[in-house]
C-alpha cells in the first residue's frame, strides 16, 4: 500500500517548535490576529498557550509627556507595550481570563491615576475581577495599583497574598497585622509624612508620639528589600514659601523605625519625576519630634546611622529627571542645581552599606555631548567624600554624536584614573517614539567597563550607533569609543 507523502504544511503543523516561532509574531499583538485561531485546532492551542505565557507578567501604563500632566487624558493605555483603546480594555481582559485562561502572576501599573476618573475606577475593578481574581490564587506581585484607590479593601487583601507589593498606602498599612515575610515591600516618601502626622495628632508629647509610632508600624511583617519611591516634584501647600517642585524632607525616625521593625536587608530607591502624591504634608515640620532628611541636602548635616547596615542599595533612575540630570554634573554647570552631588554620601548615612548600584536613565538626560567630560565628572562626584570600603557600580547610557560633527580638539581623554577592563556587557531597553505612532522599540546596548579601585562605571552605547562610527575612529584615537573595539584590534 502506497503511503501518501506528507505535505510541507502538515510538517509545519506537526513541528511544535517551528509553529511557536511562527505564531509568536501574531501572539504579541493577538487582538489584531484572532482569525489565526480558526486555521485548525493545533494552531489555536499553540496560539492560546503563547498568549498565556506572554501575559503571566502584565504591565499596564498610561504614558504622557514627562514634564506635563495633561488636562485631557488620552483615550488609550499601553498593555505589555501595546496600545489599547480604553473602550477595548474590558473585552481584552475578559478574553484573557475566559478564552485564554491566563494565570497572571505579576502586575505593574504606571501613571493610571492620570486617567479620566470614571475609567480609572473601572480599570481598577477590571484588574481585580479579570486578572487577579476573587481569591488571587496565582498573583505574586502587584506594583502601583494603590495609586488609583489609595488603599482599598480589595488591594489590602491582595497585599497579604503577594511576595512583592506596593507602594503601600496608610489604610493598607493599618491592616497588616498578620505574620508575613515579603521579598519586596514598596513604600513612598508620602507615607512617611502621613505616619508622622498621624502619630503627632494622636499624642500630647514627643514621648507619646514615639510610642504611637512604634505601635503604628506593624511588627509581624518583614521584608528582604524595602523599595522607597521618592517623588522629585513634590510641592508645598498654597501660601507656603518656596513653591518650586523638589524632593522634600522625610521624617527620619519613621524611616528608621520601619527599617528596624521589618528587618530590612537591602534598599532600593526609585527616583521618580512625579507620582500621584505631589502635595506635601508639612504640619509635622512644625514640631521638633522628627528629624527632616533629604538625599540632596548637604551631606555634612546628615547624621550617620550607628546600628543599621544593609547588604546593598540599588538606585533606579529610569523615571527620574532631576536626580539623573544633577548626578554626574558639576552643580555650577546646571541651570537649576538641586544638590544631587550629595546623593551618594547621604545614601551611606541614611542607609549604611558597602555596596551601591545605580542604574541611570537610558532615555532622559542621556549624555549626547562632552561624553568624556561627563565620565570624568562622575568620578569626581562619586569620590567627593573619601569613603572606605565602598563598592559602587553605575550603568551610564550615552548617545554617540555623529563623528563628523565633532572637532578633534573637543575629544577629551577619560580621566586617567579609569582603567578599561576587558569586559563586554549588553542589555536590552525599550523606548517609545515621541509621536507614539511606531510604538515601543527594543534596542540592544553594548557596554564596556571602566574601573577605579572598587568603582565600576559601565558605559553603554546603542549597538547600531557603534557600527555607524566604527570606520571613523582612526581619526579620533583619544575617544573612549575605541575601547568598544579593543577585542577586534587584538585579534
Automatic annotation (TrEMBL):
InterPro entries the UniProt entry points to = Regulator_protein_PHA-1
- The identity of this protein, by name, is Uncharacterized protein
Amino acid at each position: 500500500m502506497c503511503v501518501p507523502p506528507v505535505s510541507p504544511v502538515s510538517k509545519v503543523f506537526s513541528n511544535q517548535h517551528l509553529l511557536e516561532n511562527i505564531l509568536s509574531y501574531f501572539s504579541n499583538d493577538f487582538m489584531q490576529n484572532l482569525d489565526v485561531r480558526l486555521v485548525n485546532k493545533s494552531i489555536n492551542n499553540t496560539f492560546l498557550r503563547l498568549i498565556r505565557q506572554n501575559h503571566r507578567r502584565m504591565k499596564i501604563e498610561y504614558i504622557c509627556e514627562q514634564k506635563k500632566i495633561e488636562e485631557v487624558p488620552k483615550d488609550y493605555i499601553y498593555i505589555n507595550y501595546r496600545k489599547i483603546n480604553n473602550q477595548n480594555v474590558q473585552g481584552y481582559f475578559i478574553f484573557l481570563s475566559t478564552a485564554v485562561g491566563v494565570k497572571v502572576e505579576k502586575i505593574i501599573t504606571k501613571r493610571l491615576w492620570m486617567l479620566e476618573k470614571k475609567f480609572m475606577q473601572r480599570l481598577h475593578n477590571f484588574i481585580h475581577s479579570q486578572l487577579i481574581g476573587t481569591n488571587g490564587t496565582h498573583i505574586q506581585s502587584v506594583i502601583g495599583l494603590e495609586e488609583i484607590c489609595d488603599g482599598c479593601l480589595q488591594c489590602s487583601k491582595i497585599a497579604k497574598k503577594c511576595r512583592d507589593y506596593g507602594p503601600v498606602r496608610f489604610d493598607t498599612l493599618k491592616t497588616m497585622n498578620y505574620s508575613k515575610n515579603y521579598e519586596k515591600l514598596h513604600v513612598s516618601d508620602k507615607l512617611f509624612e502621613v505616619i508622622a502626622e498621624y502619630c503627632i495628632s494622636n499624642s500630647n508629647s514627643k514621648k507619646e508620639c514615639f510610642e504611637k509610632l512604634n505601635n503604628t508600624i506593624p511588627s509581624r511583617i518583614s521584608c528582604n528589600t524595602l523599595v522607597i519611591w521618592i517623588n522629585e516634584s513634590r510641592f508645598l501647600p498654597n501660601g507656603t514659601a518656596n513653591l518650586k517642585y523638589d524632593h522634600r524632607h522625610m521624617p527620619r525616625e519613621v524611616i528608621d523605625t520601619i527599617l528596624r521593625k521589618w528587618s530590612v536587608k537591602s534598599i532600593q530607591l526609585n527616583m521618580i519625576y512625579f507620582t500621584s502624591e505631589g502635595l506635601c504634608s508639612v504640619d509635622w515640620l512644625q514640631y521638633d519630634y522628627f528629624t527632616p532628611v533629604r538625599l540632596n541636602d548637604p551631606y555634612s548635616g546628615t547624621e550617620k546611622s550607628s546600628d543599621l547596615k544593609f547588604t546593598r542599595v540599588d538606585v533606579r533612575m529610569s523615571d527620574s529627571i532631576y536626580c539623573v540630570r544633577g548626578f554626574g554634573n558639576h552643580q555650577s554647570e546646571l541651570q537649576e542645581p538641586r544638590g544631587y552631588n550629595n546623593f551618594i554620601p547621604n545614601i551611606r548615612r541614611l542607609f549604611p552599606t558597602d555596596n551601591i548600584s545605580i542604574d541611570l536613565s537610558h532615555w532622559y538626560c542621556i549624555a549626547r555631548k562632552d561624553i568624556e567630560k561627563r565620565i570624568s565628572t562622575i568620578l569626581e562626584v562619586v569620590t567627593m567624600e573619601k569613603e572606605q570600603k565602598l563598592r559602587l557600580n553605575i550603568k551610564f547610557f550615552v548617545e554617540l554624536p555623529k563623528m563628523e560633527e565633532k572637532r578633534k580638539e573637543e575629544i577629551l581623554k577619560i580621566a586617567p584614573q579609569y582603567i578599561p577592563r576587558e569586559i563586554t556587557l549588553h542589555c536590552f531597553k525599550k523606548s517609545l517614539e515621541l509621536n507614539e505612532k511606531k510604538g515601543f522599540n527594543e534596542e540592544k546596548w553594548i557596554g564596556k567597563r571602566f574601573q577605579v579601585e572598587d568603582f565600576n562605571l559601565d558605559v553603554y552605547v546603542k549597538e547600531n550607533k557603534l557600527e555607524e562610527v566604527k570606520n571613523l575612529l582612526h581619526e579620533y584615537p583619544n575617544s573612549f569609543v575605541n575601547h568598544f573595539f579593543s577585542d577586534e584590534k587584538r585579534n
